Amino acid sequence: MSGLRSLDGQLDWNDVRYFLAVARRRTLARAAAALGVDQTTVGRRIASLEARLGVSLFTRSAGVFQPSRAGRGVLEAAERMEEAALELRSRAAGEETAGPAVVRVATTESLAEAFVVPAVQVLRTSKPGIQVTITTGWAQVDLRKGEADLAVRLVRPTDPRLACRKLADFRLQLYASREYLSGRPTPTTLAGESLIAYEDAVPPGTRHPFARLSMEGGVLALLSNSHHVLVAAAAAGAGIVQLPSFVGDAHPDLVRVFPEVEEPYSVWQVLPQANRRIASVRAVSEAIAAVFRQRRAGGVREPARVRRQGR
Questions:
Q1: For the chain: N or C, fewer Cβ within 10 A?
Q2: pTM for this structure?
Q3: Helices then strands (H, E): number in the chain?
Q4: In 3D, which of 129, 136, 130 has the Cα closest to residue 151?
């Protein structure tokens, strides 16, 4: 970054925000949508920052913005500024305020339904001023960049700037409907079977969709990133699906196949260290953890293994 011009005044944090939006989203249109402004404003802010620094921060090709060599150096510094800004916000919000608070929780559909929503319902009585926004999906949000206030996820973070605690240990198992299994030999492999899977989990994804059983000879009948679609398809007899056991065992139309096969996993609550000082985030965090504790204590016990009926 030796080509950067010396600054004779204060750097405008808003210019840096615009730079980060373009660097992450690669086009003015997507950056503008994320910032809630028009493209012209974004372009003007980027030009202003480049003129102030005396370097081109991006290479442009067909409307796509890629950080230049100087831009990559500025990006590292800009992300540190962003973290400092989030820390400032966290400290300022550290005490309870009289007005309503919004806490954003990122998790998966199944965890949201089974744990986060019940926690929110409890909070409606004890902390009526807190509004919770739940975002579901497999893609991990970046908590350090303020994309959510806390997350309930399947991966333990390694970044020391993120606080985490284990909420539970669960397992993934395979299920099919009685209709699908009726009149068929008991499956011993997935060969010849119709398979239902999370689209992002099919190899070479990060999590094998069938408890690491070989898919050779099986037919991918349906792919979806919707938890509800997968459960509905399996219940309708479309094939074999991998589900968290607390979901599959609770469904009246599903039974286990390959009951000896399972993939254990853990659930973690994760939030930026600074957010631990925000009273509303702490309240939501504790409410979610309490629901998980109730399950572990037997209040909503995970069903024991069951045998397939009618086999």
A1: C
A2: 0.67
A3: 10, 11
A4: 136
